[in-house]
Design brief:
Blueprint: H1 3-11, H2 19-28, E1 31-34, E2 39-42, H3 45-52, E3 57-58, H4 87-95, H5 101-105, H6 108-125, E4 127-129, H7 130-135, H8 137-147, H9 154-166, H10 178-200, H11 206-212, E5 214-215, E6 218-219, H12 222-253, H13 255-263, H14 268-278, E7 284-289, E8 293-295, E9 298-300, E10 305-309, H15 310-313, H16 348-365, E11 370-371, E12 376-377, E13 386-388, E14 390-392
Parallel strand pairs: 2-10
Antiparallel strand pairs: 1-2, 3-7, 4-14, 5-6, 7-10, 8-9, 11-14, 12-13
Protein name: Cytochrome P450
GO molecular function: heme binding; iron ion binding; monooxygenase activity; oxidoreductase activity, acting on paired donors, with incorporation or reduction of molecular oxygen
Organism: Solihabitans fulvus
Length: 394
């Protein structure tokens, strides 16, 4: 096996620390063809940005015959992240106002209230699992409220969504377990009932707005509406949960930076951006060449799959001086933690708000905060986060 093949093999093992492997692949070539994977890997920051903003690069692999086959009938999330314009433009326009920075800013009092409530419960115990007790529930409750999921159903809603997330295969993006299939069936049935109820009696929530949405005189189809609800439920939880988990893990590993933020909470906005760069929730993104293109002197042919290693781009020394150093005052953010271009993360503003409120509360409320047991990383090459992160609070 070639050196590159060995490095890619290490990458696909979802190691605890993938960054040294990213560095070695980038040093080999910033844009390289990997025969064993049948795709290009792009690890340089400049090159990743070029692909994300390229007008002749697609997210719809099915159009070019490069999507994994569906012989096993497994569910694979679809909708907004996996379609090109004009459908992408139409679908995104229906929901983007609900996730704009201006709209999201109005959520701050509720996010602060929920944060205080969850941390008060944890403080009474003196310990918590950051993921199970805080970083997981917080975005789930916020998202459920946006969608209009009643409080009595929110725990069930989160359980279904998290089961689907945990059972999606990192390569095919399919749900691959019986538990995952059942959760998807149950969540679909539940959301179908909610949509039907909103058609009969609209409320002031996102599902009601999508039900009423029209584009060029055309109502959002029932299938698209349901797919959008599923997508928001599945993807909307993961980014914020992992931002909080990865971010607090990084701060605990860098006590000087943690102390700096505790002493000056006004730094939190820049801190969130640096944490997104340093250990991003999403490490890999996929594209396909819609036509023959050239990238960094390499000829990419129409239909070839392009793997964008966002985590490597965020540690590229040509873009970020001393990239392996955490510096919450690093300055202007140019990371690709939320992607770029037309597929820039729809929930970025929500994740930033929740992350800032959550991290500020954790570092200021618990001056003796520390890791209290063995952590468990998720074994996934695309998404980086924790299954468990036990903390002692006092």
């Amino acid at each position: 096996m070639t050196e590159l093949g060995e490095l890619v093999g290490q990458l696909m093992q979802a190691s605890e620390d993938p960054y040294p492997t990213y560095d070695r692949i980038r040093e080999h070539s910033r844009v390289c063809w990997v025969p064993d994977l049948g795709r290009w890997l792009v690890t340089g920051h400049r090159e990743v940005l070029a692909v994300l903003n390229h007008g002749r690069v697609s997210v719809d692999r099915r159009r070019y015959g490069t999507a994994p086959d569906d012989d096993n009938g497994g569910y694979r999330p679809g909708g907004l992240p996996f379609v090109d314009p004009p459908d992408h433009t139409r679908l995104r326009s229906l929901v983007q106002d609900s996730f704009s920075p201006k709209t999201v800013a109005r959520l701050r009092p509720e996010v602060q209230r929920l944060t205080d409530e969850l941390l008060t419960r944890a403080a009474e115990r003196g310990e918590m699992d950051l993921i199970a007790d805080f970083a997981g529930p917080l975005p789930a409750i916020v998202l459920a409220g946006l969608l209009g999921i009643p409080a009595r159903d929110q725990a069930m809603f989160r359980s279904w969504a998290m089961t689907i997330i945990e059972t999606i295969d990192p390569v095919s993006h399919r749900v691959v377990s019986e538990d995952g299939h059942q959760a998807r069936t149950d969540l679909t049935a539940y959301l179908t009932e909610v949509v039907a109820a909103r058609r009969r009696r609209p409320e002031d929530d996102l599902i009601s707005r999508m039900v009423r949405a029209e584009e060029s005189g055309q109502r959002l189809t029932a299938a698209e509406l349901l797919e959008m609800c599923l997508l928001l439920a599945i993807v909307g939880l993961e980014t914020t949960t992992n931002l909080i988990g990865n971010g607090m893990s990084a701060l605990l590993a860098h006590p000087a930076q943690l102390r700096r933020l505790r002493e000056d909470p006004a730094l939190v906005r820049g801190a969130v951006e640096e944490l997104l760069r340093y250990d991003a929730p999403v490490q890999l993104a996929g594209r396909v060449a819609a036509e023959d293109i050239e990238l960094a002197g390499q000829a990419l042919r129409q239909g070839q799959v392009i793997g964008l290693v966002l985590g490597a781009a965020n540690r590229d020394p040509l873009a970020f001086p001393l990239p392996d150093r955490l510096d919450i005052a690093r300055g202007p953010a140019n990371h690709v933690g939320f992607g770029r271009g037309i597929h820039f993360c729809l929930g970025a503003a929500t994740a930033r708000l929740e992350g800032a409120v959550a991290i500020t509360a954790l570092v200021t409320r618990f001056p003796d905060l520390r890791q209290s047991g063995a952590v468990k990383r998720r074994q996934n090459v695309h998404v980086r986060g924790f299954e468990s992160l036990p903390l002692a609070l006092n």
